[in-house]
Each structure stands twice: as structure tokens, then as C-alpha cells.
């Protein structure tokens, strides 16, 4: 029989406060101004007119990779608790990658908060995410995949993996 003292209950979290939404929106406006003042050469992002917490972004495939020449579109959905919580990133461009699944979900440590074993911190932001997406295309992490078959191919037959990734880039990442 389990004693009462050995049972761990999940921590209760208070619902987001309305002022959190204001903090998130103010922070996102500052980040948008920074991106406009200093555009990144490999990526761009902007909020949607109807919802400032949803951004559309494009990252260019890194040079000397199977993704070179591609334009990879994705969506960032910022929670009310941003910047304390990371946004949800969903690729819209079909991408042959072990860390991006067929419905566009992304497996990347930066998109998880530290409590969940990730590396997200409130000092990170839109520019950090854009850089991370660009780097992810250049350096897959087959040891933490979303698509196991692609990770296995990446490890066992990198040439074939790169050939398929290049074909998908030419076909879908326009």
C-alpha cells in the first residue's frame, strides 16, 4: 500500500493573469521593432494583423546543406505567459528532417522551458527562435527525433538522407 507521504501530486498553477497578456504584447512589439531596425540575413518574421501573438516567419536554408536555396515557412504562437514560456513553432513548409514531423511540429530544446528539461529562458525571443530554426536545418539532432525513420537514415545513410532532403527542398521550399 502506498503511503500518503510518498504520493507526488502535480503542482497547481494559477491561470494566466490579464496583465501577462499585456507583458507578452509589449515584449513582442519591442522585438518586432528590433527586427525591423536590424533585419536578419537568414530569416524574417512578422505578427499577424488579427492576432499579435501569432507570427509568420521564413527562414532560408543554410548554405552547403540539403536545405540550401529553400524558403521554409513556419508559424510561432506566443502564449500569454511569454516570455516566461516559449512559443509553439509549427512548420508550414513540408520538410524532410528528423526533428520536424509531417504535420510541422518541431523537436528542439530551446522550445521547452527548463522545468520540462529544455533550455528556454525569458531572455530569449523571436531572434533566438529564428536563429535556432536556421541552425536546426543545418544541424539535425538525430538523437532526439520526431521522425525516427529519418533519424535512422541520417545516421546510417547520410548521402541518401541528403538526396531526399534536397529533393523535398526543391519541391516544397519555394
From TrEMBL:
Q: Which GO terms describe its molecular function?
A: ATP binding; transferase activity
Tell whether Nucleotide-binding is among the UniProt keywords: yes
Q: What keywords appear on the UniProt entry?
A: ATP-binding, Nucleotide-binding, Transferase, Ubl conjugation pathway
Residues the record marks as active site: 107
Q: Which SUPFAM superfamilies match?
A: UBC-like (SSF54495)
Keyword check for Nucleotide-binding: yes
Taking every annotated instance into account, which residue ranges of this chain make up the domain UBC core? 23-174
Enumerate the InterPro entries for this protein: UBC (IPR000608), UBQ-conjugating_AS (IPR023313), UBQ-conjugating_enzyme/RWD (IPR016135)
Note the Pfam families from the entry. UQ_con
Record family assignment: Belongs to the ubiquitin-conjugating enzyme family.
Can you say what this protein is called? Ubiquitin-conjugating enzyme E2-24 kDa
Amino acid at each position: 500500500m502506498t503511503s500518503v507521504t510518498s504520493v507526488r501530486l502535480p503542482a497547481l498553477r494559477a491561470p494566466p493573469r490579464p496583465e501577462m497578456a499585456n507583458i507578452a504584447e509589449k515584449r513582442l512589439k519591442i522585438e518586432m521593432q528590433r527586427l525591423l531596425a536590424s533585419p536578419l540575413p537568414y530569416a524574417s518574421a512578422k505578427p499577424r494583423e488579427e492576432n499579435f501573438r501569432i507570427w509568420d516567419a521564413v527562414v532560408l536554408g543554410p548554405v552547403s546543406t540539403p536545405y540550401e536555396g529553400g524558403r521554409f515557412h513556419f508559424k510561432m504562437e506566443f502564449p500569454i505567459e511569454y516570455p516566461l514560456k516559449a512559443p509553439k513553432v509549427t512548420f508550414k513548409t513540408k520538410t524532410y528532417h528528423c526533428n520536424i514531423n509531417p504535420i510541422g511540429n518541431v523537436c528542439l530544446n530551446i522550445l521547452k522551458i527548463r522545468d520540462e528539461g529544455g533550455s528556454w529562458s525569458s531572455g530569449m525571443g523571436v531572434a533566438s527562435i529564428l536563429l535556432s530554426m536556421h541552425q536546426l536545418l543545418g544541424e539535425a539532432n538525430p538523437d532526439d527525433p520526431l521522425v525516427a525513420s529519418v533519424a535512422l537514415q541520417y545516421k546510417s545513410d547520410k548521402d541518401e538522407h541528403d538526396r531526399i532532403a534536397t529533393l523535398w527542398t526543391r519541391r516544397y521550399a519555394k
